[in-house]
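Field: sequence (string)
Field: structure_tokens (string)

Example rows 1 and 2, in order.
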Amino acid sequence: MEPSNAPVPHSVLDTRGMPGKQAFAFWQDHIGSQYDLRTPREFPKAFNARVDFWHLKSALLGTFQGPAQDWSRSRACIGRDGMDSFHLLVFRGGWSAPHGGGVPVGPGDILVCDMAQPLYMRGGDNELLTLVLPRHQLAPHLHAPDEHHLHLLRSADPLATLLKDHLSNLLGHLPNMSLEQARAAIPATVHLTAAALNGTIRDEQLGSVRMAMTERICRYIDARILDSGLSPESIARQFGMTRRNLGHLFEFSGGVAAYIRRKRLSLAHARLRRSARSGQSIEDIAQAHGFNHYRSFSLAYRKQFGTSPRETRAQALKGTALSKDADSRLSPWAHWLKDLK
């Protein structure tokens, strides 16, 4: 248990002063598991990148500065890391645009990236303020949560301006805040983020009973996610409500059954990667996570991660030999991104 006055964990990566080839290799070690990076044909004399993140336990907040580069996430990349979070990128400098043309993002704009969906962007000399929220934190507050990938909030949008001011102020105070104080600011951050993305302030973003109940049920489900008796019916009985009302609370995930399936698939994905050399069969992993038929598991898995369970196992086997050495060289923030729940 963290003491009440524990500081907010802080991690920095800075490649300034390194030779260009060494700096890019160091950068690739850190970011290569989350993005598909293209190695330059000719390495520049300098590749100056800086990442400065604070870990608020259920969120990350920090800054990024980096040179011109492509940043993309293929289906294979999504399948490798299984990240299920939203990244809100507040552009303070530089530019970005989709590959092949599209609406560019510039200073003052906010771009939302859903890390569970493919991404193909180009950027130049970016300076970003970045908020990372796990899906279960933000999705319950959003209209059509799966439709916010590459959602662009322009600098002139009043709610976007409020959100930018809030994030800048919070970031500025983190060095002097305790972790307990920083965590207390997360609900307001989530509500303001959702208000900006939805375009209006809803009662749910103002601390309604409905939202409190949804979060309570999510905690109940998460604690019993591998219980074979967990079902929409059992949850409705536990909380004294009808299945219909329970379904309304989980519209953000396509229903409570879809929420349970997504969580179980994410756990199965992590088990597939961890157990690559243990000899545990994929069928046993599927059954342990609530899927009695391999075909239904494989279809649901591919739909969520864009790759098959067998392909995930093969990728994990291929990378196991290098992963321990590589992980030991990573700055804490790189682990925080992968492990954020």
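Row 2 begins here:
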Amino acid sequence: MMNVMRYDPFRDLRNLQEEVNRLFTTSLARAFGDEGIERGAWTPNVDIYEDHDHIFIEADLPGMRREDFELTLENNVLTLRGERRFEKKSENYHRVERPYGIFSRSFTLPQTVATEGVTAEYRDGVLRIALPKREEVKARRIEILSEGEAPKPQVIEAEAKAAAARS
């Protein structure tokens, strides 16, 4: 069985843009002797996937409280911004590798998203955003009739259940 993959002609360009953005937010700060603790040289990692009804965005925000970040939707752009604060627990740190600071991630939503139904949930350090798809863009199965074949009558389950409830 062969898997079918959608061709995205801009995938490589987006990957290049992300790498350049990552280069400028992390490597330049370190090149000038800044470890990134004060300025915030990090962006939360995200996974984006979809099913039949929704597109999902999951962002890793480990160790953060709900009040440390915000999610906004304006002009079809979803923006996650906040700050992960460095809490000094000692004067004698040998190494600080966990990222801290102010962050912002923006996602331009496709026209297929019904923005009025967007929901978000934060649990166990992961923010999960559910973006519902518009009804008219959901994939649906179309029955193909053979030549001379009449369409099959459709039975609506809701009416049968309502009639059974009344008896």
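free_text_note (row 2): Helices lie at 11-31, 157-166.
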